[in-house]
Write a structure and sequence with these properties.
678 residues, Beta-Lactamase, alpha+beta, Helix Hairpins
Amino acid sequence: IKASHALSRAVQVDDLAQTVLRVVLENAGAQRAVLLLARDGKLTVTASATSEPGALEDDRATRDSFPESIISYVARTRAPLVVADVADDATFSADPYVSRARPSSVLCVPILVGAELAAVLYLENKLIKGAFSPDRIALLEVVSTQLAISLENARLHEERRRDAVQTSRQEAVRASEDRHAHHLATIFEQSPVAIAMLRGPEHVFEVANPQYRRFVGGRAVVGQPLAKALPELDGQGFVELLDRVYQSGEPFLGNAVPARLQRGDGGNFEDCAFDFIYQPMLDPSGNVTGIAVVAHEVTALAAARRDAEAANRAKDEFLAMLGHELRNPLAPIVTALQLMSLRANVGAERERAVIERQVHHLVGLVDDLLDVSRITSGKVELRRHPVEVADVVVRAIELASPLLDQKRHALEVAVPRQLFVNADADRLVQVISNLVTNAAKYTPPSGRILIRARREADQIEISIIDNGIGIDAPMLRQIFEPFAQERQTLERAQGGLGLGLAIVRNLISLHGGTVQAKSEGLGHGSEFTVHLLAIDMPVVAAIPTELPPSVQLAGEARVLVVDDNVDAAEMLADLLKASGYRTALAHDGPSALKAAEAFHPQVALLDLGLPIMDGFELARLLQIRPDLATTKLIAITGYGQAQDRARTAAAGFAAHLVKPVDMAQLRRLMEQLLPANK
């Protein structure tokens, strides 16, 4: 209908050519289009264009470039031609243009006025084989019908203009008009869309094609005013719309407009829906004399859309109810487990641990259900303020660390400081932790996960990249839909409801950003990238903070011990405590970052072979924190070669100790690093 409206307004052939090319490039899946008009028995290029905005091809060599064998075939057969794979087609693959330009798929349509060839419309797509689906071909048939009408109108307009200065050829002009009228009548009768012409302020049916008569139950409407021909339309707004178009001279476009028509068996009423256009018809003085009606029935489509919207509302309401109802029994269960822990009941520790893990998992599922419900119902309010991305990533890693640790993934973080966004910090942490957790779930044990952030122009890009199972193309198109999950084995090894990514998309959308998923397919990993608007914040130099006097006393230096071997870490901490040091323990990188933030160690002993992120990555993240700028780092590793020591030194470690650690050596090293605490 939009195409009909656009084409009906063009009266010059050049304008018409540009309009039809724009319409088909926007809607038919083509990258290039060429329109050839029949003039003096020959087809000549009138216009050609590409799918780039405004890209009309003006260069004659480019405009006249097309496969002559295909054009000739369509002109000869008067039938549309669809070639899904031109290179594999024995008939046309040898065409010089095909060999040179290498189009993948081609659609070529004859524009017929009666039995005469008026034009040929050629479309190609160089990237996609089979680009022209049946729906797009059907669209082109409708456009070609309107184009045939418009071409005839354009030609008639041109002939009338010439007649104004060539009065001696009046009879020839009348004969031409009669001929064109016959052609238009033929097109009118055979059109696949409903067309009717209404005359005067009473909207009397002047003509109505067979398709229109089928729409109104086969009633004889010609010669009758609308109010008498279709009395059931009274009170439905259509008469008022026609009056407005007749009085204003402005067309009206309706989309999926409901109507109640008497057209069933026995004169029963039916609820229908139509796309339509009311186009005013003007006399030579510019006065409205009537209205052209072009309509297409979309009853089934409108009903399907209503059903889908109702089902979606019902689903959201059910999820909200389910989430809240599950909260009620969960609360006393969690409380009972906490009481059991406080009372130190013995004999059922293993069973209680299983229950705690499963309840924690169930609470997470309920939280996801409630989050989806709140977001879809618009009940989420963001508390936005300037947030540094690095802080968000650290908090997100802490939340995802249990799964990262369980699956022994190597985590790499490439997130520089001074990247700021205006965001709700808690919700942004939820987004990043969901993406990291998702990467951990769908990456086999001992995989690699990268968290990367950078600024591109006015955007902050945060990417989570894994080498996991990947995503196939069909799933990639719906990966952010609620309950969408990659196909799993029968035992549902990954678990979950498939809500995490839907929550991510909705929360990022509330922030005015976007999130994208990329994958080369199954077995090739995946990449999720969040785009948020960057904000500029002044760079504030780190201000050294004086420690309270109580921690400056001899023997009270703070030492953080990080080792995934719990026994080794605890033994080393006990020895340090015996030597008068205050200690804190951590067993992986994320928990070490959290401990360092609270404990502010003066020395950190880092095992290099940590899970989730290794000691080098942990050291880098510690060193970029202004509040830990003076913390001394000591590497603890099983490797002691020269190249190993050179690597730790280059990474900023103050010392390199080889397991098992000699405590006397460690004491001497601590005295060197902390002279104030000798």
